Give the backbone structure.
Amino acid sequence: MNALKALVIGIALALSMAPGAAAGTRAADTINVVASLSDLGSIAQAVGGDKVSVTTIASGVQDPHFVDPKPSYVVKLRDADLFLVNGLELEIGWVPRLLDGARNPKVKAGAAGYVDCSKNVPVLEVPSVVSRADGDVHPFGNPHYTTDPLNRKIIAETIAEAFKQASPANADYFDARKKEFEKSIDEAMFGKDLVEDVGGNKLDRLTRSGELYTFLEGQKLASKLGGWMGKMKPLKGMKMVFFHKSFTYFIERFGLDVQNFVELKPGIQPGPAHLVSLVETIQRDKIKVVATHPFYDEKIGRLVAEKGGAKFVPVPLQVGGVEGATDSIKYFDVVVRLLTEAVGK
Ligand SMILES: [Zn+2]
């Protein structure tokens, strides 16, 4: 460690121990939670309410694959009771280094305080052979599972279990807030009326099994479908191009048809031949949207969109990724609005 880094850590530690600092004024039963990513931090806040103190490491505007492991993050982890991570190696480039620096046995990999939020999420694009060939950054399957609104309920359950274990006295409180969060996702996803009629759990199950539309037609409830599913319905089957395989779960959930990406492989920059062929595909298939995230090189995405005659649409990848996307509900509100406006639906 160089002298400057050591000094920065020293100062940060001194500040965190100063009277009146957040850690010093926490109530005795408050769980000190650190989340690697803003999506997880926002769900933790929703479930934990005022019984938790949540710190998020990477903000929503950062590429979660590549985060600079700053000394200030090490300091945050040193005091953590729980560490929430996305897992599936999304943070492989930076979380292990932070954990090494923090030397906090409570939250090291494998400890009870290390919470891998991918647990219980049905993972997509799991390869038959694990390989990082050519630098593929998704060797264990697609790690961007928070882009499916329904998966956020599974994450909330995992987080609630961890909170209950850390603070059994507040178990009922966490359960009640988790239920409230689940309800808010269901109502935003399907519309309040339909959730009242059918129930959130059943709608979730039907959506996951691909039977939702058949069921709604059969029950003459199709016109009651509201929320994000209702708004995205006209986009079903629509071809789009994405920059990275970051929206795989969203695409699957809302039935978009995305076969082409600006990147050659996840994490691998495209060459000219790939871009030329991509522009030809956009023209041939009359693709209307090239969607990207604000942290990717805007020039490449814009060029491909313009040459192909499509709209260039930067969508946030995480909560906090653009102004106004301050929690899970507002995040998907923004994404759905950007995509539906781009295609004029
Ligand atoms: Zn990725």
